[in-house]
Amino acid sequence: MAEVSGESSGESRADEVRLTAWVRGQVQGVGFRWWTRARALELGLAGWARNTADGRVEVVAEGARDRCDRLLAALRSGRTPGAVDAVVEQWGPAKGGVDGFAER
After folding, report:
1. Which of 16, 101, 23 is nearest to 66 (CA)?
2. Given 24, 51, 65, 70, which residue is catalytic?
3. Catalytic residue among 13, 18, 24, 33
4. How far is CA 24 from the centre of its chain?
5. What is the pLDDT of residue 94?
6. What is the mean pLDDT of residues 26-48?
7. Does the active-site annotation cover 33?
8. Could you confirm whether 67 is annotated as catalytic?
9. DSSP string across the chain
């Protein structure tokens, strides 16, 4: 029991992750970043979505793992603007320093 009470704030912090997802397909110039920002804000995530020079969109989101999982599922749902061909994901610990969710 001491582990639970001693870890209550630590568990919350440990649950914070950083999801980086690279989305390939027809995802630039179709409102994809705006749509992603709206989904992320609904989930209470912080981060950004930005176009890359090779035509992909890079999405970086920080928050609880389950909320990041939900954003990832939304990116893969087939209900996004444009057409998503593939999503490559990378997970890591939250780095902090991000506030809100921006379109870059």
Report:
1. 16
2. 51
3. 33
4. 15
5. 97
6. 98
7. yes
8. no
9. -HHHHHHHHHHHHHTEEEEEEEEEEE-SSSSHHHHHHHHHHHTT-EEEEEE-TTS-EEEEEEEEHHHHHHHHHHHTSS-SSSEEEEEEEEEEE------SEEE-
